[in-house]
């Protein structure tokens, strides 16, 4: 019985990166450097932000960065690299396989980044181009693109965001006519 218990304790220590976060003062300095904000376990907002759409995969990130700019994302990645932290990226939480969060991870939440740029005079495509931040939902993107009489290859679930959707290939109801979102 003792060897089994020993293996469990060693595995827990090796996989639980919350034990290896830098000192509280270092985290507080990092939080001050952000234009967005960071949430630690115990914060009243933590439960709401860390809960995924598929509650079967509930995880406990060690720190959640609510990024509001590209610089926040860059700072978060560099911070994680410096302290050897596991990074996860979360936009809408629609990843039903639970990959957008992990126990002890530094979770970079992109849900506040919602810029949409439409360029109808694009030199890359005659119909124009749309650039969106990952925090947008497809419903918001569809409404904005429709306002300029265009369509975009996107998800059929309006609450999904474009980041994970596109990384998965981007299959759409209109893919036969216009290709994949990742094209």
From TrEMBL:
Gene3D superfamilies per UniProt: 3.30.465.10
Reported cofactor(s): FAD
Keyword set, alphabetical order: FAD, Flavoprotein, Oxidoreductase, Signal
SUPFAM superfamilies listed in its UniProt record: FAD-binding/transporter-associated domain-like
Signal peptide: 1-17
InterPro entries the UniProt entry points to: FAD-bd_PCMH (IPR016166), FAD-bd_PCMH-like_sf (IPR036318), FAD-bd_PCMH_sub2 (IPR016169), FAD-linked_Oxidoreductase (IPR050416), Oxid_FAD_bind_N (IPR006094), Oxy_OxRdtase_FAD_BS (IPR006093)
Source taxon at top rank: Eukaryota
Pfam family, one: FAD_binding_4
Molecular function in Gene Ontology: FAD binding; oxidoreductase activity
Entry's family note: Belongs to the oxygen-dependent FAD-linked oxidoreductase family.
Record-linked PANTHER family: BINDING OXIDOREDUCTASE, PUTATIVE (AFU_ORTHOLOGUE AFUA_1G17690)-RELATED, FAD-BINDING PCMH-TYPE DOMAIN-CONTAINING PROTEIN
Protein name from the UniProt record: FAD-binding PCMH-type domain-containing protein
Organism of origin: Potamilus streckersoni
């Amino acid at each position: 019985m003792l060897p089994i218990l020993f293996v469990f304790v060693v595995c827990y220590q090796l996989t639980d990166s919350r034990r290896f976060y830098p000192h509280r003062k270092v985290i507080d300095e990092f939080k001050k450097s952000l234009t967005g904000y960071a949430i630690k376990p115990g914060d009243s907002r933590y439960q709401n932000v860390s809960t995924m759409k598929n509650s079967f995969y509930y995880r406990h990130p060690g720190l959640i960065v609510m990024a509001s700019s590209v610089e926040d994302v860059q700072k978060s990645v560099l911070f994680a690299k410096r302290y050897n932290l596991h990074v996860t990226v979360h936009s809408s939480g629609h990843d039903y396989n639970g990959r957008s969060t992990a126990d002890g991870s530094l979770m970079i939440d992109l849900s506040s980044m919602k810029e949409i740029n439409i360029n109808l005079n694009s030199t890359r495509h005659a119909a124009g181009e749309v650039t969106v931040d990952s925090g947008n939902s497809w419903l918001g993107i569809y409404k904005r693109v429709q306002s300029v009489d265009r369509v975009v290859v996107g998800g059929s679930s309006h609450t999904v965001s474009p980041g994970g959707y596109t990384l998965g290939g981007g299959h759409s109801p209109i893919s036969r006519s216009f290709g994949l979102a990742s094209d």
